[in-house]
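User: Please predict structures.

Assistant: First:
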Amino acid sequence: MPRMQKIGIGRLIRAARRPAVIVAVVFAGLIPARVALLHAQRSSGYGGSGPGWWTADMDSILPRQDDYDNATGRVRMVVPTGIVRSKGHPFFQALGSNGRACITCHQPSNGMSVSATELQTRWTESDGKDAVFAAVDGSNCPDLPQNLKSSHSLLLDHGLFRIALPWPPHDPDGKAIAPEFRIEVVSDPTGCNNSAIYGLHSSQPAVSVFRRPRITANLRYIAPGSNGLMLMADGRVSTLRAQAIDAAKTHEQAGAPDEEQLRRIVEFESRLYIAQGSDIAGGLLNEEDGPLALGPENLADGKTPRLGGTPDGRAANPLWLSFDRWRTPAGAGDVGLQLEFRASVARGSDVFFGHRFQVQAGSAGMATCASCHSPEMPRWMDIGTSNVSDVNQFSDLPLFRITCDTQATPREYHGRVLYTHDPGRALISGKCADTGAFVMQQFHALPARAPYFANGSAASLVEVVDFYERRFRVGLTSQEKQDLINFLRVL
C-alpha cells in the first residue's frame, strides 16, 4: 500500500494542533487524497472494526464503539450496553422477500442512514444488485427496467427512496379520511404516479413521493409530540414498535415481525448513539472537558441537552451555549488551525441560538434557527423545501397540484392552490394546512449522510445554509455562514 494510504485520520487530527501555517501545507497535500480513498477503505473495513457496508444476514460483530471516515473527519457509533452479534438479530436479518434488513438502509458509516456517494459506490461494487436497490422503493418505479442505473437515479443522486402512500388517507383504525383537497399529477418523471399498477388512479390508489431515510439512533433525544414520538417525515407512526412493523412490511416486503423480533429491534434502536466523533480541523470532539453538545459518548451518558430552543428562539438549555472553552483562541498571532476552527464553531452556536430574523414577510415575529428546532414547537412544519412557486424546480421529482376545498383552512401565504413535490403530512392527515409540512430532523452525524432535507435537495451544508438565507433572508455575513456550517458539521 502506498504510504499516503497509511496516513490515518488520527494523524491528521494531531496535525491540527500544530501552527496554522504548517497545517495548511499538510492539509493541502493530504485532504484530496484522503477523501478519494474513503470509499475504497470503507469497503474493506478500514477505519472501523465492523464492515464498511453491512448486508442482511451477515455474520459479524457490531462493537461497543466504532468509527468511520467521512469528508470532514470521523463519525463515531457507541453501543453503551456492549457488542451486538449480527447473526440472527432481526435488525440485521432479512425478514422479507427482497433480501433487505433494517441495516440495509441504516448504515453505521452513514450515520445510521445512507449517503448518495456511498450508494453510488455500492451500485458499482454490486453491479446494481445490492438489496438496497430493491425495486419496491429503491428504484424510481417498480415497473422500470431494474438493471438500468437511470431507473434508480433518485436514490443514486439524492439518496431518495420511494414512499407509496394510500389515497385517500386512512386513520390508525383503517377508516378512510375525507381529504380537504384534491390532488392532481402535474408532472411525473418517474412514471409511478400515472402508472396503471402503482399510480393515483390504479386499483389501489397511491401517491408516490421520494424521501431520505432518517437516522436510527439517539432516539432518547427525540421529543415526543402530543400522540407519541414523531419518527417519520410525515409523523404517521408514534412508536418504535409501529415504525418497525411499517418498515418490515413496506421496505422489506415482509409480514409483521413477531413479538420477540420487535422487542429486539426496539431494544437495539433504543441503545444506539451516533455523532461526529472527530473533525479534521477541530480535533477530537469527545474531550472530557469539552462541550457537552458534542460526541456520542455525551449522548449515551445523557449529558447532551436536546438541540432546541423556546418559541422566541432562546436556547432551551444553557448547556448548549457552553462553548466557552472553544470561544477564544489562547494567545495571540498564529494560534493554529484547530483553535481557529473551534472558535468558529463557538460563534456558529451563537448564530444558531442568537441571530434573529423574520420568518415571514410582513410578520412582526422574530425567530432564530433554534425556534423551529425546539420541543415546544409543532412537530411538523413547512420550511419551503417541498412547496414550490417555480414549477420547474427539481424537475426529476414528481409535481402535484393541491386544490383546497373552499371550507378548508387555506395555507397561509399560499392560498388554496399549491404546487408541491411532496404533500408531506397532508398525505396522512388530509388537511390542506399540512401541505408540504415535515417533522424536523436530528442534526447529529451530518457529514456522514449527505444530501440533506427530506427531498435530498441540498448536496452540502453550504447549500443548507444558503437555502435558509434565500428562504428567510436571514442576513448572515460570509463569516457567520461559515461559522454556522462549522457548528453543524461537528454535531
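Second:
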Amino acid sequence: MYDLALIKTLPVGAPSAYGIGDTATFVITIENQGTVDATIPAGGLVDYYPVGLDLADTNWTAGAGVATYNNAVGPLAPGETAEIMVSFVNNGTETGTAINWAEIADDDSDTTYGTSDVDSTPDSINFNQDGETDDLDDDNINTEDGKNGGDEDDHDPEMITLDYYDLALVKTLASKGPFYPGSIVTFDITVTNQGTVPADMFTITDYIPAEMTLADDDWNDVSATEAAMTITDQLAVGESTTVSIDLQVNDYILGTVTNWAEISSDDGAYLGGDWDSTPDTINDELAESPEDDTINNENGDEDDHDPASIEVDPYYDLALVKYLVTTDVVEPGDVATFEIRVTNQ
C-alpha cells in the first residue's frame, strides 16, 4: 500500500502573530503511512501562500502564489517522517489572518509501483479535490480517506496573523495668546493607534526648549530639556488619547518658540516595533519632522514626533525707582540729591 500524508504546523514556541518585515517559518511534516518506501521527487512538494507573504527560503522557488520545494524528500521507509521548513516574510500588504497551505504535488507511486496513493491525489492545484477544504476543519488530520469523502491527507493548512504596531503623535497648541515672558502655555499631545493590535504601554518625551520651563506636576521632570509621561491605559486599535503639558515662558524671550514631543518607547517589540517610526529620545528635528501634524509619514515625516509653536510678543515695560543719595537728615537750606533709576523690563 502506498500512502503519504502531510501536516503543516508552526514550530514549537513560534509566535502566532507577525509584524511587517517579520519572518514566519512553517514546518511541513511528511509521513509514510504505507507499507512500501516512498519518495517525493524534487518539485513534488508545493506551498500555496497568500499575497501578504513573500517567500524567503532559498530551498524553495517562488511562483504566482505557489512555492515549489527544490529538493527530493525521501525515500521514506514505512512509518518514517521527514520535516521540511519553509519561510515567508510579512510584506505589509495584508493584515488579519493569513492561511498558508501545503500539498504533495507528485510522488513515485506510479513510476515505482504502478499504483497511486491510496487516499489522496497528488497535484499542484489548491482546492481542486473534494477532500481539499478551504477552511481549517481539516487542519492536522492525516487519517482520513480523501478519495471517499474524508480529508485529503496530503494537503494541510496553517494559520498566522499578520499584524503591525503603529503609533502616531500630533502636538497642538491648546492655549490662546498673546504670550509674554511668564505666560503658562498648554500644549495637547494626541497619540493615535494606527496599527492592528492594541498598545498597552508607551512613553511620551517632551523636548522642553531653552526658552521655556516645565510647569506641570503630571510630568516627570527628567532634565531641564526633557519631561516624560508613561501611558499604561490600553489604547485600542483606531483609538486616540490626548494628554496636556504646561510650560512657562522664561524671562526676556521674544519671537517664535517651538516645542517638540515624541514617543520615546513602546511595547511593540514583539511585532518588530513600530513599523514606520523609531521611538527614541533624540530630537532630530530636520530628519524626523519636516511637516507638522502629519500622522502617515507624509513627506518623510516620522509620525511619532511632532512640534507646535508659539509667538512670544514684544511688550513695553519701564519701571522706576527713586533713591535719596544724600544723608537721610536734611537741614533747612541743605541740598538734597535724589537718584531716579529707570529699568526696561
